[in-house]
């Protein structure tokens, strides 16, 4: 269940709970679903304090490691500001009553029962109790609630909205405006970080190519013969998509299906261990319907190698877990496998080209000898669909068309998922059992953020066909100053100085400035962040730090901006004077 579905259930429960406590009305739309099934129903309590009332919402209370708690103060719930809050905060959702019934819910950050409303929505507009998937208003309600909790600013929130709609976003703007920093903030707001493995970043450069990004042949040293072989190896983006698709695929399954997958994997792993254990009697010979197969070893990627017993041929066969799992989904038990009359037709119909007898034999052996001894785990929950964000820094520094190759098609927002499947340059070498054995596609839970500087003269241009596959957002130096928050009381003065310099380069309000330049040549906050390198502990040497920032960083980049232009020296002097002019900002 994804976060929006969980949140919808949580809100429906919250409303149902309060309506029942106030009115004792069994005809309320939510009573039979949410209240009636609960034994030892607890009217009130402080969920944030691990009160038993929290158990009544535990199915919908966890969001990527964070918890939303239910707090109900009975019996007079209306006057005691019942709420749902993120644990440890006053970021909460409260009911708005009309007579004895809840007509809307609102978000607030305050403790007072009369707290300021950040966003209010009626029960009907949120689509509560309509039996449908979460609507756009409920999603916005949850996102606003989450962003308040995460202290996400409006710029990040807007970018999340653009990315969520388009799947692909390029942040463009002047150097130093914090585009890479912002990309990571956007990813974090969508629940993806480097730490949880849902966010990854690469930096394009002229030598970065298709084999780095998608797949290619890599030299592998054979330790036995000291020779070099070549092996197909997935690139950074393909590996990332493989990981994202596992989550997407699992999120489409119910708890029972996931439990069966876990059971099968545990059985397979035990089988592998027995094969490798010389003292084990299991895992040496596999029975067929007629004849037997010898197990001759395990490959480096845990595939099982087999050979037909008594065959004069040296030919061997390989069984991979991923393909075995596909077969198990169609033939889930020993009875269904035994009922197969034509093994070749049935098995290849399920998992396409393979040595059908090998797969039948391994799965049959697992069912007969392992799965019954492995207990189903009743604690296994459904998997939440997660967002996976791939950040491409300096996206226009690589030769885009060559780096993406066929993915040019599959990254299109209209072709996300299996309908955007493409055959890659090395498709004939993709191993059986690979997630993308039938062609590559970008999973629906993968989002791409690129960053670029339009004025970089050393980079490749991006063709229009690729450009139209991305939404574009210009990041201005004046609107992304969060990176300077560490300067605390000095921040306003630093931002004022930066804006004054940028208005001299090019004033967007008056459309005046230095000839040949534009807002794309503004100086971003990342440059002024370098002041920290030169400030002493009590920050009393600010003027000296300004001077070193100019001499070591700003002067050089501005000189490059003006190189070869008319009156370059005079204009650089003008910018220097503006930079050093007395700060009149209060």
Averaged pLDDT: 89
Find the count of extended strands (DSSP E, 2+ residues).
Answer: 20
**Helix count from the secondary structure assignment:** 19
Q: What Rg, in angstroms, do the CA atoms define?
A: 30 Å
The largest sheet is: 7 strands, antiparallel
**Percent range for helical residues?**
25-40%
Which residue ranges are poorly predicted, with pLDDT under 50 across at least 5 consecutive positions?
none
Percent of residues in beta strands: 15-25%
Structural class: alpha+beta
GO molecular function, one term: ATP binding
InterPro entries: ATPase_dyneun-rel_AAA, Methyl-DNA_Rec/Restrict_Enz, P-loop_NTPase
Pfam families: AAA_5
Protein name: AAA family ATPase
What report would you give on this structure?
The protein has 586 residues and is an alpha+beta fold. The chain contains 19 helices and 20 strands. The strands form five sheets. Strands 1, 2, 3, 4, 5, 6 and 7 form a seven-stranded antiparallel sheet that branches. The model has no long low-confidence stretch (mean pLDDT 89).
